[in-house]
Amino acid sequence: MNRQQLFEQIRKKSSYLCVGLDTDLKKIPRHLLAEKDPVFEFNRQIIDATHDFAVAYKPNIAFYEALGPKGWESLQKTLEYIPQDVFTIADAKRGDIGNTSSLYAQAFFSEMNFDSITVAPYMGEDSVKPFLEFAGKWVILLAHTSNTGANDFQLIESASGRKLYEEVLLRSQQWGSPDQLMYVVGATQADKIQGIRALAPDHFFLVPGIGAQGGDLEMTSRHGMNKQCGLLVNSSRAIIYASGDKDFTTRARTEAQQVQQEMHRLLESILGE
Amino acid sequence: MNRQQLFEQIRKKSSYLCVGLDTDLKKIPRHLLAEKDPVFEFNRQIIDATHDFAVAYKPNIAFYEALGPKGWESLQKTLEYIPQDVFTIADAKRGDIGNTSSLYAQAFFSEMNFDSITVAPYMGEDSVKPFLEFAGKWVILLAHTSNTGANDFQLIESASGRKLYEEVLLRSQQWGSPDQLMYVVGATQADKIQGIRALAPDHFFLVPGIGAQGGDLEMTSRHGMNKQCGLLVNSSRAIIYASGDKDFTTRARTEAQQVQQEMHRLLESILGE
């Protein structure tokens, strides 16, 4: 899916919601454990319930990897089940020397046909480029993450006065265009998001873990949106574990719809869409 | 395996060689492709041929992941086949927010019983700590990698005058002790290795991709060794693909032995072992 097509999906659904498939056998409704592949069965029902309101799904690869070979089978089936018009993100945070990154790219782009993969920037250009060589696929590079540990290194200021995440934003734009490169941006302060948008005006940002309540979504949207929306805002647990019981699909659908309605309001208000 | 046990293995074998299992169906001898599990069969024969001279094996996880569920089965069988007295490294370069890192740790430490895993530091303390919570297991944190892209961010100098990889070395020592934390150190200049050893005097370093020829091994060893050796030097392709034909095991054994003999000489010369 290219950038224009992604924006069209956002307009069509009035939504820039990404649903995180952090599927955990300990958290899914008990009655699903009797299924042959409970992880896939949970994902299938969540996808059925939410795809009207979501423009992207983001399986968190660790949850599948922790289950061994079976987990990879569940992941593959999930990916094949996601409708073609929904953007898919392998949240894998890979990154290694050139030939190794090529193999990771092959695993997620060729074997599994994900649209995109999250990549860690620490090893620099030759660890990221192999992912960018896949036509029509996307790298979502970690810039400013939302966890506490983001402060440890990402905020280190260089002699030039730029923070590490700003260096990542600037240098990586020489490696790939806004048609193949997005950024993970977890910042929740207005001035920081504005600053990041100024450094990368045309790129999509994947924003992790913002609740629909509390103003974070509005603030991020007002300061982070560009003309093509430029945001994919992820919600995982609040949607997929809205209920741990048999009503989990209706509850997930309601949660997703509420986020979508708020996004609809923001798209109208900010972009006039 | 704890630090003392690792050092005892190094003394016993007069070797600090790590053999990288970057097993690639395109590169292994053709006759193995008739086997039911060619990847495992190749690894099995390489392990048989080289374990007298190697203190560690390091499967590069991308090579297995690129093969889908089958690849994970080959990896698991390989790990079970590696003799108990050899240290095992999952070269996975993982790292994510806390609960996700916990799942990666579970995958590699509990499901697969690796001794250690390589981890990327970009997301900071709470992305690394979950790995450190597994008793008797090791994190091998990327500090200074050996690829060209290492220059992009790892060498950025902060206002305090320290480079990013030096900040990683210093801050991460507050997260775990030299009994649970090693570093990837791919530097090949004498003064840089000396500087890194000064910042982390007691930690083991995993040194990627140094050929036995050309003086790099000697230079790294002279400037990087500590009293417990403190080095694991990796060689992948030069050993496992020494031959692409039916003599691959004898050729791999000869290559491994040559490195071991050079390491024996260096251990005697530097540590008097």
From TrEMBL, chains A, B:
GO molecular function terms attached to this record: orotidine-5'-phosphate decarboxylase activity
InterPro entries the record matches: Aldolase_TIM, OMPdecase_type-2, OMPdeCOase_dom, RibuloseP-bd_barrel
UniProt enzyme class: lyase
Enzyme Commission no: 4.1.1.23
Keywords, ordered alphabetically: Decarboxylase, Lyase, Pyrimidine biosynthesis
SMART domains associated with the record: OMPdecase
Gene Ontology process terms (BP): 'de novo' pyrimidine nucleobase biosynthetic process; 'de novo' UMP biosynthetic process
Pathway recorded for this protein: Pyrimidine metabolism; UMP biosynthesis via de novo pathway; UMP from orotate: step 2/2
Gene: pyrF
Domain of life per record: Bacteria
Pfam families tied to this protein: OMPdecase
Coiled-coil intervals, chain numbering: none
Domain Orotidine 5'-phosphate decarboxylase: 16-252
Catalytic reaction equation(s): orotidine 5'-phosphate + H(+) = UMP + CO2
Active site: 93
Stated family: Belongs to the OMP decarboxylase family. Type 2 subfamily.
The protein, known as: Orotidine 5'-phosphate decarboxylase
Lyase in keyword set: yes
